[in-house]
Design a protein that fits this description.
This protein is 33% helix and 21% strand. The chain contains five helices and eight strands. The chain is globular and about 45 Å long.
């Protein structure tokens, strides 16, 4: 039994009609079995969702962050400065996954910290300095600590080096809960 839907301009079949054998006016066994199977699958999908706990959010963050690709000697496979910056952002997020906010950043951020840093040809952190801050000492310290704890980084490709070093900057976007995303790989902020 098909029904014309004026709302969408489509022919539709109500779900209850799929389970009925109209000649006998009772549900058909085949269709009823299909509906039971679909219902069981939907119920299983709902029950398999992990509870919203800190441990589950941390595990999800680790799964989301991509592995940085390097050559056997640890050199990044990036072919541009932007791609290398993405590699480093992924690496920082990976090493510090428990401090990474995995959802879209809130509209009004707690803090935005910009750090300029230098990496040598071997991937060592040579220098780092805060170049933009809102004077939140806790988030400044977290940003610097996460950068330092990640070093050594994947080695920069030789084509990106200038004087045996590469200079970069990164922006840490902090939510009220103290977790961050790096602007290079961050999701868009919420509108409200």
């Amino acid at each position: 039994m098909a029904v014309w839907s004026t709302q969408y301009g489509l022919m539709t079949t109500p779900i209850y009609s799929l389970a009925m054998d109209y000649s006998l006016n009772k549900p058909s066994m085949k269709t009823a079995a299909v509906l039971v199977g679909v219902s069981a699958a939907l119920l299983a999908a709902c029950s398999s969702q992990k509870p919203d706990t800190q441990a589950n959010r941390d595990a999800t963050a680790k799964e989301i962050i991509e592995q940085v690709k390097t050559t056997p000697d640890g050199t990044s496979t990036a072919d541009s400065l932007g791609a290398y910056k993405e590699d480093l952002a992924r690496r920082i997020s990976q090493v510090n996954s428990t401090k990474v906010h995995i959802e879209r950043p809130q509209a009004l951020l707690r803090s935005v910290i910009v750090i300029k840093y230098v990496v040598d040809k071997d991937g060592n952190l040579v220098r780092s300095e805060v170049v933009r801050t809102n004077k939140d000492k806790i988030t400044e310290a977290t940003a610097l600590a996460t950068l330092r704890s990640t070093a050594p980084f994947p080695k920069p490709p030789a084509a990106l080096l200038s004087g045996g070093r590469v200079e970069l900057s990164e922006t840490w976007l902090f939510n009220n809960d103290g977790r961050f995303q790096l602007r290079t790989i961050a999701q868009p902020q919420k509108n409200e």
